[in-house]
Amino acid sequence: MAEEPASCPDGPKVPVLLLKTKSSPTDAYEDLFSTPHDGYHFEPTFVPVLQHCFAEDGLRSLRELLQQRRINNGLDSAYGGLIFTSQRAVEAFAKLVDEGQGNDESWPHLQDVPIYSVGPATTRALKAISQSPPLRIYGEHTGNGDALAKYILEHYGEWYRGRPTKPPLLFLVGEQRRDIIPKTLMSQALPADTRIEVTETVVYGTGVMESFPRDFEEVLSSTRGRPTRWVVVFSPTGCDSMLRGLGFILDEKTGKAVRGAGQRTTHIATIGPTTRDYLMKTFEFEPDVCATKPSPEGVWEAITSFESIDRQSY
Predict the structure, then answer these.
(1) Residue 124 belongs to what H/E stretch?
(2) Which of 108, 168, 210, 217 lies 20 to 30 A from 149 at CA?
(3) Residue among 203, 204, 166 at smallest CA distance from 185
(4) Residue whose C-alpha is closest to residue 11's, from 42, 32, 38, 33
(5) What b-and-e string marks burial along 175-195, b requiring 16 or more CB atoms within 10 Å of the CB?
(6) What is the pLDDT of residues 50-80, one digit of tens each?
(7) Mean pLDDT, to the nearest integer, of 149-157?
(8) Which residues pair with 42 in a beta bridge?
(9) What pLDDT, on a 0 to 100 scale, did the predictor assign at position 75?
(10) β strands within 175-300, DSSP E
(11) What are the tens digits of pLDDT across the range 25-59?
């Protein structure tokens, strides 16, 4: 069910429909978009799209690796580090860590290996995992998979400098993910002593909540009289339901989105290039803006830049 919109001061408020589950105890998107800045008054509403479940086969494999201490910096290790690009993958990892904690402060025994994280949100989640000494987390500044892969090539290469073959990396993923990181790290164009093998282990699955189409329609109906509104899309999952809810007709043969008649007052923003490219390739639908950084500030900047240009046209 959609979350109630945050209250805003009196004034022209632009609805911002955030297609995500509201984070607890606070959500940075709500904090930013519910506070007026520079003459912009937004009204954020959360409409959850995704439901997640842990993948037991992947968790079982990871549990065995941790229990047997096979992820380390030794020559006989199965893996020399871990990669995270999703908070859900961190949640799955944290679940196993909590289960095996006991009285061993050094559990899960990852003190000597690099942990790579794609951005600030994933990094915050990893830093909350207890280990003494703490996990050694790198890559927060990269912001996307392409940049993280390039960073790993340099950083991991230096970490295991002198080894003719770098130990493999374990990449904990969901059922749906991009392959840019494995492709980059395992590229045959790289020298053998630079190339890094990557094993992807699925630790969670993702699907569309059954209630999403109904919840989305309710929020759209309640904001239909506004001069303009925004929908912020965080994942390819649920994009077809989102487009249908906005009145686009999906061609039965091609699956492409066909815009209906009338002026369009609902604008679309994507959290980053993965979701933007999915919309364009799958539905031939180009969103109005794409955040340059996958963060509340990045989405804010993209939307307000568009709004600023739109205001100047009147």
Answers:
(1) helix 120-127
(2) 108
(3) 166
(4) 42
(5) eebbebbbebbeeeeeeeeeb
(6) 888 899 999 999 999 999 999 999 999 999 9
(7) 97
(8) 14
(9) 94
(10) 198-208, 229-233, 249-250, 257-258, 266-270, 289-290
(11) 788 999 999 999 888 999 999 999 988 889 999 99
CA of 209: how far to CAs of 21, 36, 270, in Å? 11, 31, 19
Determine the pLDDT at residue 260.
Answer: 61
User: Residue 18: beta bridge partners?
Assistant: 46, 232
Look at residue 292 and give its three-state secondary structure: coil
Instruction: Please give the distance of CA 80 from its chain centroid, rounded to a whole number.
Output: 24
For residue 11, pLDDT over 70 is answered with no
Q: Return the DSSP state at 179.
A: -
Q: pTM, whole model, 2 decimals?
A: 0.64
Distance CA(120)–CA(141), nearest Å, equals: 7
Q: Which has the closest alpha carbon to 238: 277, 266, 201, 210?
A: 210
Q: Report which of 90, 81, 119 is spatially closest to residue 196, judged by C-alpha positions.
A: 81
Sheet hosting strand 229-233, strand order edge to edge? 42-46, 14-19, 229-233, 266-270, 289-290
Cα–Cα distance measured from residue 82 to residue 198, given in angstroms and rounded to the nearest whole number:
9
CB 21 within 8 A of CB 46: yes
* Residue 132: alpha-carbon gap to chain centroid: 28
Which residue in 232, 223, 220, 219 sits closest to 289, CA to CA? 232
Burial class (CB in 10 A: 0-12, 13-18, 19+), 314: exposed
